[in-house]
Amino acid sequence: MKRWSDLIPRGGRVLDVASGGGRHTRWFAAAGYTVEAVDRDIGQLAGLADIEAITVCRLDLEAEVWPYSPASFAGIVVTNYLHRPLFPSLLEALAAGGVLIYETFAVGNARYGKPRNPDYLLRPGELREVVAGRLEILGFEEG
């Protein structure tokens, strides 16, 4: 994630999707970005709400309505989370020239541990297909 973060314009607004404990939220805020951390369980994020550059949003991404307007973010970061119906909303929420950093588990992960459910594993080439014609791929790793 950090390796690609410099592609997001400095000072831009970043969405940290399924932010968990807020590791990436903290990093982006410290690097000068304004960050919105979204997760269904914000208990781990409670200490971040007092940091001026961070907004914490409790949202069940799989059951609630997506609250973000089109072109709202210079960068969107998704790590270790996959909910395919969210793809169109993520792409729409990126501003022109925005950067999507997406790192998650893929088919074949079962031999290493969880998750094993194919619903939570990217198929080979799937993310490329999702962004085709919508985003320029600046870096891609699989496997």
Fold and architecture overview:
This protein is 17% helix and 23% strand. The protein is an alpha/beta fold. The chain has a domain at 1-85: Vaccinia Virus protein VP39 (Rossmann fold), CATH 3.40.50.150. The protein has a five-stranded parallel sheet with strand order 3-2-1-4-5. Helix 3 links the parallel strand 4 (73-79) and strand 5 (94-103). The protein starts with a helix and ends in a 12-residue tail after the last helix. The relative contact order is 0.17. The model has no long low-confidence stretch (mean pLDDT 89).
Name of the CATH homologous superfamily of the domain at 1-85: Vaccinia Virus protein VP39
* Strand fraction: 15-25%
Number of helices: 4
* CATH structural class of the domain at 1-85: Alpha Beta
Major β-sheet annotation: 5 strands, parallel
The Cα radius of gyration reads 15 Å
Using the 3D structure, state the CATH architecture of the domain at 1-85: 3-Layer(aba) Sandwich
Task: Give the SSE string.
Answer: HEHEEEHEH
Uncertain parts: none
What name does CATH use for the topology of the domain at 1-85?
A: Rossmann fold
Strand order of the largest sheet: 3-2-1-4-5
Q: Alpha-carbon distance between the termini?
A: 16 Å
Total beta strands: 5
Seen as an oligomer or otherwise, the chain set is single chain
Shape verdict? globular
Task: State the helical fraction.
Answer: 10-25%
Average of pLDDT: 89
